[in-house]
Design brief:
Blueprint (H helix, E strand, L loop, with lengths): L9 E4 L2 E5 L7 E6 L8 E4 L6 E2 L10 E2 L3 H12 L22 H8 L5 E4 L7 H15 L5 E5 L1 H15 L4 E3 L4 H6 L7 H4 L2 E5 H4 L2 H9 L4 E5 L14 H14 L5 E5 L8 H11 L11 H8 L2 E2 L3 H4 L1 E2 L13 E2 L5 E9 L3 H22 L3 H20 L1 H8 L11 H12 L27 H10 L8 H15 L4 E4 L3 H11 L15 E6 L5 H15 L6 E6 L15 E4 L6 H8 L11 E9 L5 H19 L7 H18 L11 H27 L7 H15 L2 H14 L3 E3 L7 E4 L5 H11 L1 H5 L4 E4 L9 E2 L5 H15 L12 E6 L6 E14 L6 E14 L6 E2 L2 H6 L5 E3 L3 H13 L5 H22 L4 H4 L3 E4 L4 E10 L19
Length: about 1000
């Protein structure tokens, strides 16, 4: 008759030890390796495989370690935990160590039965991580069974990578380019969204009625909407069909009151209060109309809305936040400031003559079209803007625009002309359809005469390429050289693809022709534009970084269009931004700069250079009226305040109209023109109102739902169970050093590198799967960074980093296997003679297992989790005087003051181990106390809803496992009559 094993029991099968999980049946055991992760879970049929009860072996008295043994074993064990017993089930298993402030949205979410939140933290704070934390926790707890992320197609692959690499969530991409392949794999009548529980979907693809209806019918119970502000519009503006379709999709998704919904955006207001209200209405319908000036309204909003500036979280959990001390203080290294410098250039005489002729031509066409009808007038207008913007951008963009038919030329009405012309010629801040917007817009209207005036202007433009005639390019080279000389790696943002390609050609070195670019032989220049797929863009950026390599003298220069201005994180490779082409909406500048000015940027100061033409009639006005005002408001408030698109368009239209009417030479009178004064007055009024509203909202909507004391309590509990960054850093340094690695980098708090060619083969094999076989085979240095935001190929000194995990697994396995080959830095026993104690003291490393019953919307969930604790006592095990936890932990820092004879040490620890059963009652009682603390912690985190905690229970599995035992002896036994445990006193003779 087969034995029946209860959940949490230890069994031995397949040559290793396992923990029995609650899903097991009498004839089928579901097992997780002892200390392993959920990825290693296996099922064993007891009728076909041998399964026997496992007893955790006691430590071997002969296998003594040094003073580091206990600390290394404890940390290795805790790093290996992948299912914590605390209220945050997922934190032990994710590959990112969240900042304390990033736990606030998670705490808010866990207090809601159905999670509905608007996460609007500032650019670069980590909204993706915050929403990923909530998603992984809801999935781990069984509160959600599937996930859908709605985002722009350009960001889909980045979301997929973030979810997979940081949170272990595999999601399928549902895009126009993948849907046919996915649908081929479906069963008859099966929905794509039933087949794939976790999906990342292009918002623009799924909003069409055909796909929208299927998605709504089979929508997962957890939905994240990225850049959610693009899915609503203000009540007093003409809403485009794109926004209407997106809003209709979200409205239907939000109608299911049981569906979790996370809306993510850094710009919830977009300059209009009604748009903000419409967004809040998706979260909770009553928020669309509640009086937010009232205390009740603010309290309701506070439960669902979080919006913080960098200044709010740069230093967190300090005495200034109301805490008693700074012991849990966390300082996040955002760049302290952006250094702005506006640099001007003048047109060469030839370029100036070309621009004047182009303005005259455009003016004639617009004037002529005005007399032919509104349709023709609008087509001519968009053609004129395309002509002027491309000429100001570069000779290459001008030539291509002049030879390309205007997108608006095929319009059958004035409205259609605006619909076709506006996206290519303006810079709308709320457009999430960036794809294809960086092409040369086209200015040709009539194609009857191939040698038209436009063709002649195009030829002249092409002849002006190169720094001799293109003084804008010459100015760029000058400023790039200065940035590179100061050690910066800049991104140059352009409006058009032809301009980006032109700059790359002019600046890059060409190995084939042996042409040397103006920026130096060790400067690598590449262009990334909308011609590439989103993944190809990322690949090209990584290739640029790899080509530049680790040479301190090498420099990277990326030329990019605005296809990279949103969502893509570039802070690991670049630290300066050059605006080669001015955007006509300042929010776009902020988006560009936000690609490098964000968490993980190693520079304290990000440099921003804005190039503008002093005499082209356009740039100076845009800079003065739009860009500088936007900067000042951001400087005053600490966050960006969007300008409504129609207001910035009104200003730029007035500039173009004046230019066409009066030409460049009379541009000084523009500021006195009535039309310009009206448009700028309206802009100032509305923008100042939006800024004032934002200023009030910072106080009105300040995050008050979760007090810092509550966050501090949970952070302390997490660090107690899983360890902190300092512990991990010491573990990695000491373990690698003991295993034979070569470390370079001074100071415990400094970054360092490790060459692991001299370490045991088992560790090298494990690391090869993480960092790549080539790195191990060629013994290349592996960089270890204290900052958890690391680039590809680097290791973060956090417990969830794959490199750290592989090292911890090796150290733990070697400690448990006394026959393991090579160095074994951690051991299960030790005897240390030290000045840190005045009487014989024993430190125990104890592993506890807990049964958790967690209520969820899908029913109760049974789980088994592990925890490791240090317990210490003075005297013999039979007459133990137990020490408080802080004194037990302090023993890990004790250093040996003299050598201990190995034979004497072995006899001493053997006697202590022989009496350890005398401590079982205390160990079990301590386990019950831990279970009670964990139960209280789960209830505290979910305190807002009685339904969430009904049925919750936590119990300790008995007996606990004594993983390690370490005896600390006083250096001068005569100092205390009880210096040596009584049972062992005879051994000292």
């Amino acid at each position: 008759m087969a034995l029946t094993y209860s959940a949490g029991s230890l069994v031995k099968a397949r040559g290793r030890e396992w923990v029995v999980l609650p899903e097991s049946k009498p004839d089928l055991l579901v097992l997780r390796p002892l200390g392993g992760s959920d990825d290693d879970i296996a099922a064993v049929f007891t009728a076909f495989e041998t399964v026997e009860e496992a007893r955790f072996a006691a430590p071997e008295p002969s296998d003594l370690g040094d003073q580091r043994a206990a600390g290394l074993l404890r940390t290795a064990l805790r790093i290996g935990f992948r299912s914590g017993a605390g209220p945050f089930r997922s934190l032990a298993g994710i590959a990112v160590e969240p900042r304390a402030y990033q736990l606030v949205p998670l705490l808010m979410a866990l207090r809601q039965k159905t999670v509905r939140m608007l996460i609007s933290d500032d650019v670069g704070i980590g909204k993706t991580v915050e929403s990923g934390l909530i998603a992984s926790e809801l999935l781990a707890q069984g509160e959600a069974s599937g996930l859908a992320v709605l985002c722009s197609p350009a960001l889909a692959e980045q979301w997929q990578q973030e979810l997979r690499s940081k949170f272990g969530i595999d999601a399928e991409l549902v895009l126009s380019s993948t849907v046919t392949r996915l649908e081929r794999g479906l069963d008859l009548g099966q929905s794509l969204f039933d087949r794939h529980p976790n999906v990342i979907i292009s918002t623009d693809f799924i909003k069409s009625p055909r796909h929208r209806d299927d998605f709504v019918r089979h929508c997962p119970d957890l939905v994240i909407v990225d850049e959610a502000h693009t899915c609503v519009a203000a009540d007093d503006t003409t809403t485009g069909s794109q926004n209407q379709l997106r809003y209709e999709l979200l409205r239907r998704v939000a109608e299911d009151a049981d569906r979790h919904l996370l809306l993510v955006t850094a710009t919830p207001h977009s300059g209009k209060e009604s748009a903000f209200r419409n967004l809040l209405g998706l979260v909770k319908p009553e928020l669309a109309h509640v009086d937010l000036e009232s205390e009740a309204g603010r309290k309701l909003l506070a439960r669902h809305f979080v919006a913080r500036k960098r200044a709010d979280v740069r230093q967190y959990l300090t005495k200034e936040d109301g805490l008693a001390d700074d012991s849990l203080a966390e300082r996040t290294a955002f760049p302290s400031d952006r250094y702005f410098k506006d640099e001007t250039y003048k047109l060469s005489p030839e370029y100036r003559a070309l621009l004047d002729d182009a303005i005259a031509y455009a003016s004639e066409r617009v004037e002529e079209a005005d007399s032919r009808g509104r349709r023709e007038a609008r087509i001519a207008w968009w053609s004129a803007i395309a002509l002027l913007r491309s000429l100001v951008s570069s000779p290459r963009a001008a030539a291509q625009t002049l030879r390309t038919r205007s997108a608006a030329a095929v319009a059958s009405s004035a409205e259609e002309a605006d619909k076709l012309g506006a996206p290519l010629n303006s810079d709308a801040a709320d457009s999430d359809a960036m794809e294809g917007m960086d092409v040369a817009p086209g200015a040709e209207i009539e194609q009857d005469d191939p040698r038209s005036r436009l063709a002649e202007i195009a030829d002249r433009a092409a002849d002006l390429e190169g720094p001799a005639q293109d003084l804008k390019l010459k100015a760029l080279i000058k400023h790039l050289k200065a940035l590179l000389a100061d050690g910066y790696h800049p991104i140059v943002f352009c409006r058009y693809i032809p301009t980006a390609k032109y700059l790359a050609e002019q600046l890059a070195n060409d190995p084939e022709t042996k042409k040397r670019g103006p920026l130096g032989a060790k400067t690598v220049v590449k262009a990334v534009t909308g011609e590439l797929s989103p993944q190809q863009r990322i690949d090209n950026i990584e290739a640029l970084a790899a080509e530049a390599g680790e040479d301190a003298a090498a420099r990277r220069v990326l030329i990019a269009t605005d296809c990279l201005s949103e969502g893509v994180n570039l802070q690991h490779h670049f630290d300066a931004v050059v605006h080669y082409d001015l955007a006509w909406n300042p929010t776009r500048h902020d988006q560009r700069e936000g690609r490098v000015d964000r968490y993980g940027q190693k520079r304290d100061e990000v440099r921003v250079i804005t190039l503008y033409g002093d005499d082209n009639g356009i740039d100076g006005k845009v800079l003065e009226v739009l860009i500088k005002k936007h900067r000042q408001i951001k400087k005053d408030l600490g966050i960006s305040v969007s300008i409504p698109d129609e207001l910035s368009t009104g200003v730029t239209d007035a500039i173009v109209e004046w230019l066409l009417m009066r030409g460049r030479e009379d541009d000084g009178a523009l500021f006195g023109a009535d039309a310009f004064k009206v448009s700028t007055a309206k802009l100032d009024s509305d923008w100042n109102s939006a800024a004032e509203r934002e200023k009030r909202s910072q106080s009105r909507f300040a995050q008050r739902a979760i007090h810092p004391e509550e966050v501090a309590r949970e952070v302390a509990a997490v660090r107690e169970a899983l360890g902190g960054t300092g512990e991990v850093t010491s573990f990695v340094r000491e373990s690698l050093g003991a295993l034979g690695a070569v470390l370079r980098g001074e100071g415990a708090a400094e970054d360092f590198t490790a060459q692991v060619g001299g370490t045991p083969a088992g560790l090298r094999d494990a690391l090869a799967t993480v960092v790549g076989a080539e790195v191990i085979e060629r013994d290349r240095p592996i960089p270890f960074r204290n900052d958890p935001a690391v680039a590809r190929g680097e290791a973060a000194l956090v417990r969830t980093d794959p490199v750290v995990g592989a090292l911890a697994a090796h150290v733990l396995d070697a400690a448990l296997d006394t026959q393991a080959a090579g160095a074994r830095p951690a051991r299960r026993c030790g005897v240390i003679t030290t000045d840190a104690v005045t009487t014989g003291t024993t430190l125990l490393l104890v592993r506890y297992r807990f049964h958790l019953t967690l209520p969820s919307r899908s029913g109760e969930k049974q789980l088994v989790a592990e925890d490791a604790r240090l317990l210490a006592f003075e005297g013999s095990p039979k007459n133990a005087v137990w020490l408080p936890p802080e004194r037990a932990a302090a023993l890990l820092e004790a250093t040996a003051s003299q050598n201990t004879d190995p034979h004497f040490g072995e006899r001493m620890i053997k006697r202590v181990l022989g009496q350890l059963p005398e401590t079982n009652a205390h160990l079990e009682s301590y386990g019950d106390d831990l279970a009670a603390e964990l139960d209280a912690s789960h209830r505290r985190v979910r305190q807002a809803s009685g339904e969430i905690v009904r049925g919750l229970s936590v119990t300790a599995q008995k007996p606990a496992d004594v993983l390690g035992a370490y005896l600390y002896l006083p250096a001068d036994p005569a100092a205390s009559p009880s210096a040596v445990p009584a049972a062992a006193s005879g051994a000292s003779a």
